[in-house]
Amino acid sequence: MDEHDWLAEQFEAKRTHLRAVAYRMLGSLSEADDAVQEAWLHLSRSDIRSVENLGGWLTTVVARVCLDMLRSRKSRREEPLGEYLPTQITRPQNGIDPEHEALLAESVGLALLVVLETLAPAERLAFVLHDLFAVPFDAIAPIVGRSPTAARQLASRARRRVRGVAATRAADLNHQRSVVKAFLAASRDGNFAALLALLDPDVLLRADSAAVQTGAAPEVRGAPEVAKQFAGRARFAQMALVNGTAGLVWAPGGQLRVVFAFTLTRGKIVAIDLLADPARLGQIDVAILGD
Question: Considering only the top CATH level, what class is 172-288?
């Protein structure tokens, strides 16, 4: 076996672990795969004869790649619709894929992934590597360009924020549900005034390309115009939890067709995203609730 084949064999043995690290860092299966592939390219170009712990070395490489991706994501002023909603790991419909099952077993809940989206990139890296994968701060410090003490502080700050945001999200969920439920009732009743009262004056309604193909406008802005889109409609929509937050779905015959994802600020609806792309819908965690 030549050196390249040996490296490929060693890398494949660690792929599931590396994918799990990247998934927790990025909240996206497709981006996790990109990060792992970048790590392989880096490995194939590197001289690792002095590397004593290849698994630790690869974990560091994946972490650096993910940190760059998170920083690039944060620097963008506008993000494509739904691109960074954490994606769900689901079981294959046909048969059992051992690698997939291992990743599923190591995965974290979507609720935590959503909370992790609130962290700064360096905080997220320190928290994920230390708290979820037991990587020592001496190894984390060079990745984030800080001292081990500063890396420890990053993880501690992230830990407090995760706990605080999780508690706040639980408290906010009932309020979210009441607002979305009122929106659904006003839509069904054609109560234009009630819809206006729930919408922020600058509310934005966005539709993905699949929803546009069914007749939805790509973008509608402003409370009056958005209210017109819903007044007297949504008769078959149902209350649901969408990635852990209150939303609506259209699921005729139990088949998920459209997700209405709501963004609330100070009790007002500031954005509604219509998602109808089947591939994207398969990645969203949806729990249908009673009205």
Answer: alpha beta
